[in-house]
Amino acid sequence: MREDRRPASPYHAPETDRDDLNIEDGGTREPDVTARLASTGLRFLHAVVDTALWVVTFAMLKRWLIFTLLVQGIDPNPVVTVLYGMPLLTLALEMFLYYQFFEGFFGRTPAKFLTQTKVVLADGGRLTFTAALKRTLLRFVPFEALSFVASLTGWHDRGSGTRVINC
Q: What is the pTM assigned to this prediction?
Protein backbone atom coordinates (compact mmCIF):
# COMPACT_ATOMS: atom_id res chain seq x y z
CA MET A 1 0.00 0.00 0.00
CA ARG A 2 1.22 3.52 -0.71
CA GLU A 3 2.73 5.57 2.09
CA ASP A 4 0.11 8.36 2.00
CA ARG A 5 -2.80 5.81 2.07
CA ARG A 6 -4.48 7.45 -0.94
CA PRO A 7 -5.30 5.64 -4.16
CA ALA A 8 -3.12 6.41 -7.17
CA SER A 9 -6.17 7.69 -9.02
CA PRO A 10 -9.64 8.65 -7.84
CA TYR A 11 -10.96 6.08 -10.33
CA HIS A 12 -9.13 3.11 -8.79
CA ALA A 13 -10.34 1.16 -5.78
CA PRO A 14 -8.17 1.63 -2.71
CA GLU A 15 -5.72 -1.12 -1.84
CA THR A 16 -6.18 -3.18 1.27
CA ASP A 17 -4.08 -5.32 3.57
CA ARG A 18 -6.96 -7.68 4.26
CA ASP A 19 -6.48 -11.16 2.87
CA ASP A 20 -10.01 -12.42 3.57
CA LEU A 21 -11.79 -10.54 0.79
CA ASN A 22 -11.25 -13.31 -1.81
CA ILE A 23 -11.10 -10.92 -4.73
CA GLU A 24 -9.45 -13.46 -7.01
CA ASP A 25 -12.56 -15.68 -7.04
CA GLY A 26 -14.99 -12.85 -7.63
CA GLY A 27 -15.97 -12.61 -3.97
CA THR A 28 -18.05 -15.81 -4.03
CA ARG A 29 -16.27 -17.50 -1.12
CA GLU A 30 -16.98 -16.94 2.54
CA PRO A 31 -13.88 -16.10 4.57
CA ASP A 32 -12.94 -18.40 7.46
CA VAL A 33 -15.78 -20.93 7.32
CA THR A 34 -14.66 -22.94 10.36
CA ALA A 35 -14.81 -19.92 12.67
CA ARG A 36 -18.41 -19.25 11.65
CA LEU A 37 -19.90 -22.76 11.96
CA ALA A 38 -23.41 -22.85 13.37
CA SER A 39 -23.67 -24.41 16.83
CA THR A 40 -25.10 -27.87 17.49
CA GLY A 41 -28.04 -26.29 19.33
CA LEU A 42 -28.83 -24.11 16.35
CA ARG A 43 -28.59 -27.11 14.02
CA PHE A 44 -31.02 -29.00 16.29
CA LEU A 45 -33.41 -26.03 16.11
CA HIS A 46 -33.15 -26.14 12.31
CA ALA A 47 -34.11 -29.81 12.32
CA VAL A 48 -37.14 -29.24 14.57
CA VAL A 49 -38.44 -26.16 12.73
CA ASP A 50 -37.85 -27.58 9.25
CA THR A 51 -39.50 -30.90 10.13
CA ALA A 52 -42.56 -29.11 11.48
CA LEU A 53 -42.72 -26.88 8.40
CA TRP A 54 -42.45 -29.65 5.84
CA VAL A 55 -44.98 -31.86 7.62
CA VAL A 56 -47.52 -29.02 7.92
CA THR A 57 -46.88 -27.73 4.38
CA PHE A 58 -47.35 -31.11 2.74
CA ALA A 59 -50.36 -31.96 4.93
CA MET A 60 -52.04 -28.80 3.64
CA LEU A 61 -51.06 -29.60 0.05
CA LYS A 62 -52.48 -33.13 0.32
CA ARG A 63 -55.76 -31.82 1.73
CA TRP A 64 -55.92 -29.17 -0.99
CA LEU A 65 -55.37 -31.85 -3.65
CA ILE A 66 -58.14 -34.05 -2.24
CA PHE A 67 -60.50 -31.07 -1.94
CA THR A 68 -59.76 -30.05 -5.54
CA LEU A 69 -60.51 -33.58 -6.76
CA LEU A 70 -63.79 -33.64 -4.85
CA VAL A 71 -64.87 -30.25 -6.22
CA GLN A 72 -64.17 -31.41 -9.77
CA GLY A 73 -66.16 -34.60 -9.23
CA ILE A 74 -63.14 -36.91 -9.43
CA ASP A 75 -62.96 -39.87 -7.06
CA PRO A 76 -60.09 -39.09 -4.64
CA ASN A 77 -59.82 -42.66 -3.28
CA PRO A 78 -56.86 -43.73 -5.49
CA VAL A 79 -54.96 -40.57 -4.50
CA VAL A 80 -55.84 -41.03 -0.81
CA THR A 81 -54.64 -44.63 -1.00
CA VAL A 82 -51.27 -43.56 -2.40
CA LEU A 83 -50.80 -40.53 -0.11
CA TYR A 84 -51.94 -42.13 3.13
CA GLY A 85 -51.51 -45.83 2.40
CA MET A 86 -47.73 -45.58 2.14
CA PRO A 87 -46.82 -43.05 4.85
CA LEU A 88 -43.07 -43.75 5.01
CA LEU A 89 -42.64 -43.41 1.26
CA THR A 90 -44.80 -40.27 1.22
CA LEU A 91 -42.88 -38.68 4.10
CA ALA A 92 -39.53 -39.52 2.49
CA LEU A 93 -40.63 -37.95 -0.80
CA GLU A 94 -41.92 -34.86 1.02
CA MET A 95 -38.67 -34.50 2.94
CA PHE A 96 -36.62 -34.88 -0.23
CA LEU A 97 -38.66 -32.26 -2.09
CA TYR A 98 -38.56 -29.80 0.83
CA TYR A 99 -34.81 -29.89 1.41
CA GLN A 100 -33.86 -30.11 -2.25
CA PHE A 101 -36.08 -27.19 -3.21
CA PHE A 102 -34.92 -24.82 -0.48
CA GLU A 103 -31.24 -25.75 -0.30
CA GLY A 104 -30.91 -26.40 -4.03
CA PHE A 105 -32.32 -23.02 -5.04
CA PHE A 106 -31.69 -20.76 -2.04
CA GLY A 107 -28.86 -22.43 -0.10
CA ARG A 108 -31.05 -22.22 3.03
CA THR A 109 -34.21 -23.70 4.44
CA PRO A 110 -36.84 -21.52 6.14
CA ALA A 111 -35.34 -22.35 9.55
CA LYS A 112 -31.93 -21.20 8.32
CA PHE A 113 -33.49 -17.96 7.06
CA LEU A 114 -34.99 -17.40 10.53
CA THR A 115 -31.70 -18.05 12.35
CA GLN A 116 -29.59 -16.16 9.77
CA THR A 117 -27.47 -19.13 8.78
CA LYS A 118 -26.75 -20.61 5.37
CA VAL A 119 -25.15 -23.61 3.70
CA VAL A 120 -21.85 -23.11 1.86
CA LEU A 121 -19.27 -25.43 0.40
CA ALA A 122 -16.53 -26.50 2.82
CA ASP A 123 -14.09 -24.12 1.12
CA GLY A 124 -16.52 -21.22 1.58
CA GLY A 125 -17.90 -21.28 -1.97
CA ARG A 126 -21.54 -20.91 -2.86
CA LEU A 127 -23.64 -24.08 -2.47
CA THR A 128 -24.18 -25.87 -5.77
CA PHE A 129 -27.34 -27.75 -6.74
CA THR A 130 -25.32 -31.00 -6.88
CA ALA A 131 -23.91 -30.49 -3.38
CA ALA A 132 -27.44 -29.75 -2.13
CA LEU A 133 -28.63 -32.99 -3.74
CA LYS A 134 -25.87 -34.94 -1.97
CA ARG A 135 -26.82 -33.26 1.36
CA THR A 136 -30.46 -34.17 0.85
CA LEU A 137 -29.77 -37.80 -0.05
CA LEU A 138 -27.34 -38.26 2.86
CA ARG A 139 -30.08 -37.20 5.30
CA PHE A 140 -31.70 -40.59 4.60
CA VAL A 141 -28.75 -42.56 6.02
CA PRO A 142 -29.98 -44.36 9.16
CA PHE A 143 -28.89 -42.67 12.40
CA GLU A 144 -27.48 -39.71 10.45
CA ALA A 145 -28.87 -37.29 13.05
CA LEU A 146 -26.61 -38.90 15.68
CA SER A 147 -23.54 -37.84 13.72
CA PHE A 148 -23.84 -34.41 15.38
CA VAL A 149 -23.18 -35.83 18.84
CA ALA A 150 -19.40 -35.64 18.53
CA SER A 151 -19.01 -32.96 15.84
CA LEU A 152 -20.37 -29.65 14.56
CA THR A 153 -20.59 -31.21 11.11
CA GLY A 154 -22.93 -34.11 10.46
CA TRP A 155 -22.56 -36.84 7.88
CA HIS A 156 -24.66 -34.91 5.40
CA ASP A 157 -22.21 -31.99 5.78
CA ARG A 158 -19.02 -34.03 5.48
CA GLY A 159 -20.31 -36.32 2.75
CA SER A 160 -21.42 -33.44 0.56
CA GLY A 161 -18.47 -31.16 1.33
CA THR A 162 -20.68 -28.46 2.86
CA ARG A 163 -20.97 -26.48 6.10
CA VAL A 164 -23.70 -24.46 7.82
CA ILE A 165 -22.39 -21.08 8.88
CA ASN A 166 -23.71 -17.99 10.63
CA CYS A 167 -24.27 -15.11 8.20
A: 0.77
